[in-house]
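Hey, can you fold this one?
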Amino acid sequence: MADFIGAVDLGTTSTRFMIFDHDGREVAKHQLEHEQILPRAGWVEHNPLEIWERAQTVIGSALTKARLSLTDLAAIGVTNQRETTILWDRHTGRPVHNAIVWQDTRTDAIAAALAADGRGAVIRDKAGLPPATYFSGAKIQWLLEHVDGLRAGAERGDILFGTPDTWMIWNLTGGPDGGVHATDVTNASRTMLMNLQTLDWDEELLSFFGVPRAMLPQIRPSSDPAAYGVATALYGGQVRLTGVLGDQQAATVGQVCFEAGEAKNTYGTGNFLLLNTGTEIVHSRNGLLTTVAYQLGDAAPVYALEGSIAVTGSAVQWLRDQLGIISGAAEVETLARQVEDTAGAYFVPAFSGLFAPYWRSDARGAIVGLSRYTTNAHLARATLEAICYQSKDVADAMSADSGVALDVLKVDGGVTANELCMQLQADILGVPVAKPVVAETTALGAGYAAGLAVGFWSSTQELRANWAQARVWDPTWTPEQREAGYAGWRKAVGRTLDWVDVGR
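Sure. Predicted structure:
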């Protein structure tokens, strides 16, 4: 058998390819950013062709760095930004519009109408999701209503829908020349169109959005021994594609959270805290999502509660790109360390409204508590605290839903390189924060799913043996500090609400 596993990671701001050995250690990777297209306030788009081109480049570059070929890979997995919506022509392979990114809020009127007329309750019951701009169903509806001639093509099956995993699978396996049109249960569970119990597209939910079934991909297990297909569009070689997971579910697998009650928090463009609830579908009473965590082959699906936060790492990117107070993401820690606290300033980065546990599309970002004493260093520190306070909002809701108090938080993702941020997270939560040796667990989880399907790893227990702790941050704040800081945060959140008239 080949000695390595590959994983394509289609993130919100970049695409990368990583190669892992049997111990789950990184052998090589290559990563490239792609353009963030912002046509107007609240709109966020990507160029699907650019993402496909980036994927081909990073795969080739990582293989070259490792001095490997495709034949050295037992299989590859794909993980992706989940709700981002792409529609393309089956015959030409050309997208009919830019991808509408998960952060995009143009569908706020659609979501508000669903919430107001009772359909929202059906969506919550069947799909486990609130009617929100976040998810794919409303984005498909918007495109069908705003691109001339699209609906007729969709009804014929000439126009295909997919999240970035589906777009990548289709292109890797031949594109217009026989490409496989498929997704996995985790990505399908983020559309508002899939029934959590049947793991199939639901006719009633499709009717809410006017989405033709003919344009939808086949739903498959996350780890599929039958394989999604063979990737033939790479450097004259072939490799089986056997694992697909939405990015946050992939990180859950990468963090080996295979038992009910185990949780992880990924710090990327946004933050995503997932709690494994086993084979039981747990409906949230506190603003969380019910989602599929993973399905391994023919085994029963495993579900999760999720708290999704729209803007965390991208708030640091905003400091760099829009304000210009740092030239690179790593500088935010150096700047924030120049001060002991935020001097009473709070930054609530509700650029796309507030996600869990608030679900307020009318919210917009705010910086409050400013005085003449406030400096860019205080704002940098407030940005890091905002990442951590939003995670506390979700952790508290998760404990309320599950009845299980968090005793340690497993963390991963790019922001975990910021040691001050991780210390602040421990201080604000009041529990230890543990980081694994392989912090980029999203790609690792996709690799694990692919490897389990082909016998590269024999079981999830074998994967547990790969997990190793790199660092732990213990809380240092007093309970009084923690309570006072969080009270200020909740007050700041209140200032962001009712800013936008939804639907206008």
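The mean pLDDT is 93. Let me know if you want another pass with a different chain boundary.
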